[in-house]
């Protein structure tokens, strides 16, 4: 049950937003995502172009191979920086959307003190960015040494990061600590794996990447609400109180 709940959560979130008067919440995330995509591609292109024509290029071959290498690295680098930057850039607007969804369904939303919640969000964002960097470097190193196995591990780490991004919204509203959020994912491995797979597939749909962040966050919010409505309390409820001050 948990696996399929997580697997279909991003798609369920998209359908929920499109079927309810929530489309205005997509404007800023969509605009920022498009601007980020253009900016990362231009930035990576300038960096690669400067390197290929510099005095000590990392890669140099015949002009056709230079061009192929430049376009490949531009695409891969742009995608990597986009996927790292999108959740952080859209966080405020996606949080408003996820909060609105939660309020519409259950009527109330847990409210944390403004300054403590803002400070916690900034610290968690920096920690998350650090973990993304570690995951990226680990995936690249494993790929260079193991090839296909490294690629699989890299995709798995990416899916885990997407799962954290999605469930970060309902958990943050309950003042769960950074460690507590990861503990929640660890206590629900089937849902975490399913969500990571579903979100990864969602990001591979053409043009869906620009709205994947808000859709996936709404899906994670809906999945969490389902857990709270189940006979047993949501697994994060007790740890949330214990770790609230982290």
Count of helix runs:
11
Biggest β-sheet: count, sense, barrel? none
Low confidence ranges: 235-246
Structural category: mainly alpha
Find the count of extended strands (DSSP E, 2+ residues): 0
Task: Note the run of SSEs as H and E.
Answer: HHHHHHHHHHH
> In percent terms, what proportion of residues is strand?
under 5%
Rounded to the nearest angstrom, the distance between the terminal CA atoms is 31 Å
Question: How would you state the average pLDDT, rounded?
Answer: 79
Can you describe what's shown?
- The protein is mostly helical.
- It has a domain at 2-20 and 92-242.
- Helices cover 80% and strands 0% of the residues.
- It has eleven helices and no strands.
- The radius of gyration is 19 Å and the shape is globular.
Summarize it.
The chain is mainly alpha-helical. The chain has helices at residues 2-7, 9-19, 27-52, 63-89, 91-106, 114-146, 148-172, 178-187, 189-204, 209-229, 237-242.
What is the topology?
Blueprint: H1 2-7, H2 9-19, H3 27-52, H4 63-89, H5 91-106, H6 114-146, H7 148-172, H8 178-187, H9 189-204, H10 209-229, H11 237-242
Q: Which terms summarize this structure?
A:
0% strand, 246 residues, mainly alpha
